[in-house]
Design a protein that fits this description.
The chain is α+β, with helices and mostly antiparallel strands. 56% of the residues lie in helices and 13% in strands.
């Protein structure tokens, strides 16, 4: 991260944004205040927003404790049995 000293003449925000697109900046003012200026790419922003989504985080926490997945063949067998039972009931008077 590069440190940029901001004088009383101030640099334009556009110039600072151009520099920040190349590397992250620390903006240091004469009174000692410092600010970070960094480009945020879409993925980083998406991760940040996802982490702030309480419902999503609760869902993911819940999923961690779930049992192992069911093999596809087992699902297919179960679905065939279920659909066969439904057809049998519809065909019965």
């Amino acid at each position: 991260m590069k440190t940029v000293f901001i004088s009383k003449n101030e640099k334009t925000i556009t110039e600072l944004l151009r520099q920040a697109a190349q590397q992250n900046l620390i903006l240091r003012f004469p009174d000692g205040h410092e600010f970070a200026l960094a480009e945020v790419d879409d993925f980083d922003r998406e991760i940040e927003l996802a982490r702030q989504n309480d419902k999503l985080m609760a869902y993911l926490d819940e999923r961690v404790g779930e049992r192992a997945t069911i093999p596809l063949d087992d699902n297919n067998k179960e679905l065939r049995l279920y659909s066969t039972k439904l057809r049998s009931k519809k065909e019965s008077p």
